[in-house]
């Protein structure tokens, strides 16, 4: 495909240019959406890559590292917390799937919020999701730099700088390279979890390793019961559990660059239940059946702790490599999604026009560069405070990520109402049980926010939210005065 140069409005079109897309979605035959030409992007992500992006989005450092803290708070009942939260995530993803099959676009939930809730909702969702990935990118590149010190005695900031530059370059080369990186990053994570499950099954049935004599499914209830810290302890882990699932919605951002979205996206979304069942419920059930929950503590990966208890010294190095991969995968996803979100905002006159520019390979040049530049703050933090870097950049990732889920659910509820009235075409991938399942998911997210307010450690996330909301409101009012088109409702 030829070069796409969008955003230079005063320059006459050249022989290698493609015209800029309209700010609002195009309409196809019979009033349906025309998504075959999606804003100049290349549809280069195949089914294999979409499936692994979907799988990788549900497996990250929240599981490999965060689960240790959650186990110490809730004991074996954490398995139930993941199961219930996993059901809610499935409701969210099916709601997103219904919207995607109505109109699969690169802006995804920001576009849907703009259409079904209002221009400010789209504005706030786009910028909040962008900030979420910028902050996440900083935290993950910081974590990756810390993991490198396991093997090499080099300053953290050097590793952070190298990782940021490499992933930035890969994202500018082509979306296909991004997809390949995510495929292999996800493959490492999946292989590690499946390997752990098989090792634990072997210990439970054959009794080998140092843990063989004590390993038993009864460990799930014998050390203080299934709820050793009470129901309250389980509820207090919900924010940790939901943080682990953040980025599962990333598959929606790939809609505008999927080769065959009508087939690949529903298939990827429908695999959510078994992914959660295997990678979260299955893995934790196996680990907690081999090693008592009392052996786990915050700050230590449950996988590392389990390997130590089994007497498998090689396990620590393997798990360190896996969590390094998980961190790089998350940072890679951040590079990808931030550029797309900024471009979607610019195309809808809600961001600087220069963010619309694409490279010859169809990647958002300025948006990705700007976001990567901000992620470089993580490199500076690693230089200034190498021992405290991770804690300094973790702030409101959970609350900002859940905002996207809320917008997805509300958009789906409003879309379904319009479709049922015949005002819009019905989606080919309806969410089962909706809108009731969407209302249930919204109520569950509300409960998680309340739990975050009660938990002193998680409360800091809520302190930043009002400040960010105020900043967005001021920015939107300024936009409304200077560029009314960006604050206008979409008419369909």
TrEMBL record:
Key word Ion transport present: no
Transmembrane segments: 52-71, 77-96, 116-136, 156-178, 190-211, 231-251, 272-291, 311-331, 362-381, 393-415, 436-454, 460-479
Top-level lineage group: Bacteria
Main location: membrane
Biased composition annotated in UniProt, kind: Low complexity: 16-28
One Pfam entry name: AA_permease
Record membrane topology: Multi-pass membrane protein
Ranges where the record places region Disordered: 1-39
Annotated ranges, domain Amino acid permease/ SLC12A: 50-481
Key words of the record: Amino-acid transport, Cell membrane, Membrane, Transmembrane, Transmembrane helix, Transport
Subcellular location: Cell membrane
Family annotation (InterPro entries): AA-permease/SLC12A_dom, Amino_acid_permease_CS
Stored PANTHER family: GABA PERMEASE (PTHR43495), L-ASPARAGINE PERMEASE (PTHR43495:SF1)
Recorded family membership: Belongs to the amino acid-polyamine-organocation (APC) superfamily. Amino acid transporter (AAT) (TC 2.A.3.1) family.
Name of the protein this chain belongs to: Amino acid permease
Organism: Streptomyces albipurpureus
